[in-house]
Every structure is written in structure tokens, then in C-alpha cells.
Design brief:
- Two copies of one chain form a homodimer.
- Chain A is α/β, with parallel strands linked by helices and 217 residues long.
- Chain A has eight helices and eight strands, in the order βαβαβαβαββααβαβα.
- Chain A has a seven-stranded parallel sheet with strand order 4-3-5-2-6-7-8, sandwiched between helices.
- The longest helix of chain A has 13 residues, at 17-29.
- Chain A is globular, with a radius of gyration of 17 Å.
- The termini of chain A are far apart.
Chain lengths: 217, 217
């Protein structure tokens, strides 16, 4: 039986870009690198941030802005690392926007910070549509989500400077082909870097750390 | 270090309810059960629909409305089962709305259908905010996503008539406690039914099939 396709357009873009630009100017003034980290719920954003803090906290002054719809579970975890954390609750909203991040930045002592990691709301769709003023955009796609996701949710893959394929420790238990996935991502976004990692075991994270060190320079 | 909480409200609700009501009236007129299936990307919606079609297609006349941001991958899979499939591409939109479903229903031969399964866009946030006119709301949360998700993404759990805990075949490889998860869901939504399943191996699906048979009656 043939498939009929109905295309329905929806305007989701706001007038968000001007504030995003101001955010980036503020970061540049303070020589801070701002990174926007996006993924579906449970793909490993908080775990990546924890690993990154553990690796760099003696060398680089890190702050975190935690975007969540509800709860402070992730911010509580990160605050145990004794670094500044701002929790932003979107009260139902499915993504951070530039103004939310501006509010977060206004509550940080910027002169004492080198790197701000923004953990966006867990969602493979909306966050990619709203610029925050970040210098770099990082996304995670975890193995259990499936290797067909670049075709079904293309925007975030198109915008990412780095794609981390997370949870490679469970590759034996899922039908996920890293080559197929990487080719699909490169087709959408030839310049993106793709790093297979496990934020649980630490496997592959050296490539991410090395990329981040270069980005901070 | 203490966590500061900034709460930023955002109005995401549209004037969608009137069309949803009309959709449900249309379904009632034709004695069709309309089910809205929601989850994050890759949690197993299509796989659940395929298993459900395989089980019931000799007894019940099923149609599927496939919501996707892009591609017809899922609709193509389902159309191989020789049942009517309508693909709705939201062109970037992060959820289906009642009007999109109305357009889908207008393209189905309703007098020849008993059950319409709507596969919403993969997203744990936005789809729960838009009524489609469904009689029942079903969500999947897969084991790799983590057992803390009811606290972080409460709305969908609050609205679901059924919560399927999918991918229980990989429970040994993840820190996921089904009891902890079920208590959290029941706390948000005491009347919801929770079925641990694997849409890959078929484990646990009898409870879902039995619930669906009762709902169709």
C-alpha cells in the first residue's frame, strides 16, 4: 500500500537571535567559551558534563547552566563538584532560549570563569532551533536511540560542531551501526566531528577532551 | 555549592482543543478507537505499532497516522503490513496537533477502520501538551533513558493512560530500577497502567494486547 505524505508547516522561530548575539559578545568580552550541549532525555548530557568537569576542573574554571523542565536533579549532582551551577527551570518549555541563558549568565561571576557548559532541555528537536549565543554546539546521540535518527531529526545534526555517539559500551546489545550512522551525519554536515564514546566507562572520551582543549585555546 | 533556581514561564498551549473535540466526535460516530502514542526518539513506538498490527490485523481493521519531522522511514515500514498509513511531516514541528490529525483522518476510509494508532513525533515534552482527540494516551519510556525521567519530564507521565517500560531485554546492562520508576510514575498518575515490555523480544506484550482488547470493546 502506498504512503501519502501531508506536509504541514509550522513557524517555530522566535526573535531570539539578537539576545543570542549579545550573549556571545558578553562571553567574548570575558574570554569565556560558551558551549550548548543538546540531546534526547537520557542520552548522557549530565554524565558528559561530569566527566568533563572531572578532567578539567584543576586547569580550567568551569560553570554550568542546567536547563530542565522541572526538578534540580542534574544541578544537584553537578553542584557536588563544587563549581558554580545555575538551574533554569523552563516550567514546561521544551528548550532553552537566549534570554534564559542571559538570565543564567547574569547570575555567574564571569570574571572567574573560562568555560560555560549549557545543558539544554532533553529534546532532539526544539533546542536546535533557538540560538543561545554559544560558540560551539555539541550533541549526543546514544546507541539505544538507533542509527536512523539523522534522517528523522536532521536539524540538530546539521547544526552540531561535534556529535558524540554515546553508550558505545552497550553496542553489542543493539542494532546500531556506527559507520552507517557516521555516514548519515557526514552527509548532513560534512564538517562536524564525530566521536564514539562511553560517558559511563570513559572509553573514547580522550578525543572529546582533546577537541575541547583546542576549542578553549 | 548551593543551586540557584530561575523559573521562566512560557506559554506553549494553542487553541487546539476545539479541533481535538471534533476529531473525537468523528471517531465516535464511526465507532473507531483513536490512540495517541508518544515517547522520545528511538524508544520503540514504531516497533510497538508493528507488534500490535501483527497481533490484531486478522481481527481488527487498523490504520496508522505517522507523525515525523522529516522522512517516511516509519510509514514505509508499516505500509509493508498492507494497512492504511498516512504520513504527516511536520516540517520541523516538534509534535502533532489536532489539525494535523484531522487532515490525516480526512484521508482515511473511516467506515473501514476500527482502530487508529497515531505515532506522534519523538519527543518527551511537546506532544503531551497538544490534545489530538485521542480516546487513550499511551507512552513508552525505554530502559536506556533512565528511571529518573518521571521527575524531569512529568507532564507526559501525568497524561498517559498506559506507560510501557520498553527494552526490558537490556535491563542487565543499565542502572534502571523498574520498581523505583513505577513508584515515581504512580506518584504522578495513580490510575495509569504500567507494563514492562520488550517490543524486540515480545516479552510482556500480552499485558498490552489484553489492555488494548479491553479498550476496543
Amino acid at each position: 500500500m502506498s504512503v501519502r505524505v501531508l506536509t504541514i508547516k509550522e513557524d517555530l522561530l522566535g526573535a531570539n537571535d539578537e539576545i543570542a548575539k549579545t550573549n556571545q559578545e558578553l562571553m567574548d568580552k570575558h574570554q569565556i567559551l560558551l558551549i550548548n550541549i543538546m540531546s534526547s532525555p537520557g542520552a548522557g548530557k549530565t554524565s558528559l558534563i561530569m566527566q568533563t568537569i572531572n578532567r578539567f576542573k584543576e586547569k580550567i574554571r568551569i560553570a554550568v547552566i542546567e536547563g530542565d523542565i522541572a526538578s534540580t536533579i542534574d544541578a544537584d549532582k553537578i553542584s557536588e563538584q563544587d563549581i558554580p551551577v545555575i538551574q533554569i527551570n523552563t516550567a514546561g518549555g521544551c528548550h532553552l532560549d537566549a534570554n534564559m541563558v542571559k538570565n543564567g549568565l547574569d547570575n555567574l561571576a564571569l570574571e572567574q570563569i573560562d568555560l560555560v557548559l549549557v545543558e539544554n532541555v532533553g529534546n532532539l528537536v526544539c533546542p536546535a532551533e533557538f540560538a543561545l549565543g554559544a560558540h560551539k554546539t555539541v550533541m549526543l546521540l546514544s546507541v539505544p536511540e538507533g542509527d536512523d535518527k539523522p534522517y528523522k531529526y536532521p536539524l540538530m545534526f546539521t547544526e552540531a560542531d561535534v556529535v558524540l555517539v554515546n553508550k558505545i559500551d552497550v553496542l553489542p546489545y543493539f542494532d546500531f551501526n556506527v559507520d552507517t550512522f557516521s555516514k548519515a551525519v557526514s552527509g548532513l554536515n560534512p564538517s562536524t566531528r564525530i566521536f564514539p564514546v562511553s560517558t559511563k566507562t570513559g572509553e573514547g572520551l580522550e578525543a572529546w577532551f582533546s577537541w575541547l582543549e583546542d576549542a578553549i585555546k
